[in-house]
Amino acid sequence: MLVAHRGGSLLAPENTMVAFSAATRDWWADMLEMDVRLTQDGHVVVIHDDSVDRTTDGSGKVSEMTLEEIQDLDAGYCFRDLHGCYPFRGTGVTIPTLDEVLEVFRDVWINIEAKEPQVAGPLYERLLSHSVKDRVLIAAEFEANRNGARSYTGPWGASTTQGALFWALHWLPGGSPYVPEVDILQVSEFWKGLRVVTPRFVREAHRLNLPVQVWTVNDIEDMRRLLAWGVDGIQTDRPDLLSGLLTELRGRPVPPGSRESG
Fold first, then answer.
1. Does the residue 35 lie in any domain?
2. How far apart are CA 161 and CA 141, in angstroms?
3. For residues 146 and 115, what is the distance between their CA atoms, to the nearest angstrom?
4. Continuous segment of H or E residues that includes residue 211
5. Please, which pLDDT band fits residue 261 given cuts at 50, 70 and 90?
6. In-domain check, residue 6
7. Distance CA 34, CA 111 (A)
8. Domains in the chain: how many in total?
9. Which positions are annotated as active-site residues?
10. Beta-ladder partners of 224
């Protein structure tokens, strides 16, 4: 699977509708990865950081701002493209609500990471309202960040604790006796200086019927190696590179973005 990390954050402003649109339209991303937080007035918005400082022309904590205040900001202001330019400043790019994303992107898998405990309950309510359990996966680095969504019956990604425990035990003779109660292992290739993903790791996960996605991979040779090891998906900020590699190695059709740039 080609997973556009934050929509492909090196090609368009991260976690915005313009990024999600480009990833699916131009590069045929199979899955959109995104992050959610809660506004002061209870809206689930798509943003990674706990503040708006890094990605917009404003400042302040997301949890201390209303939806109206947040959507008044220019979410394309700080984005710099591969040439060092700022093509999205003043073009109307905003921080979207999760409702907007779920309404528009109905034909693509969506990976949502809950970035804070208080967003879990409202996240679950929004997913239930849109009836999207067949296409939306809930991820979280920490289990506490999704405790309020435990009633969700759609797919779940492994937390850091679950992934670490599986990694530690998969070295045992005969493989890991531990099967995390998740639908997919989403892991970094390295964690705190330790190599996590190896051919053995992928084989052991597959033995337990667990697909493996690796994040966040932006180097084409790293992508090539991971695909050779049999990973099931790669999360990347460069969907253009991964798309081209999947065309080369897996025979996927050439997407519009590649045809236009060629």
1. yes
2. 8
3. 9
4. none
5. low
6. yes
7. 6
8. 1
9. 5, 48
10. none
Q: How many angstroms separate the CA atoms of 108 and 29, rounded?
A: 8
Question: Under DSSP, is residue 239 helix (H, G, I), strand (E, B) or coil?
Answer: helix
User: Distance (Å, rounded) from C-alpha 46 to C-alpha 38?
Assistant: 9
Please tell me the distance from the alpha carbon of residue 147 to that of residue 10, in angstroms, as a whole number: 31
Could you read off the pLDDT of 155-183 as tens digits, one per residue? 999 999 999 999 999 999 999 999 999 99
- For β-strands 31-38 and 44-46, DSSP reports them as antiparallel
Residue 1, CA distances (Å) to 58, 61, 108, 117, 180 in order: 35, 34, 11, 28, 21
Residue where the block lists tokens 């990605």: 55
Please tell me the predicted confidence (pLDDT) of residue 259: 77
Number of neighbours of residue 260 by Cβ within 10 angstroms: 8
Question: How many CA atoms within 13 Å lie on the side-chain side of 103?
Answer: 6
Return the structure tokens found at 121. 């309950």
> Per the structure block, which two tokens stand in for 40?
């002061």
Q: Do the domain assignments include residue 89?
A: yes
pLDDT band with cut points at 50, 70 and 90 for residue 194: very high
CATH of the domain at 119: 3.20.20.190
**Domain presence at residue 9:** yes
Beta bridge partners of 153: none
Domain of residue 65 covers 2-150
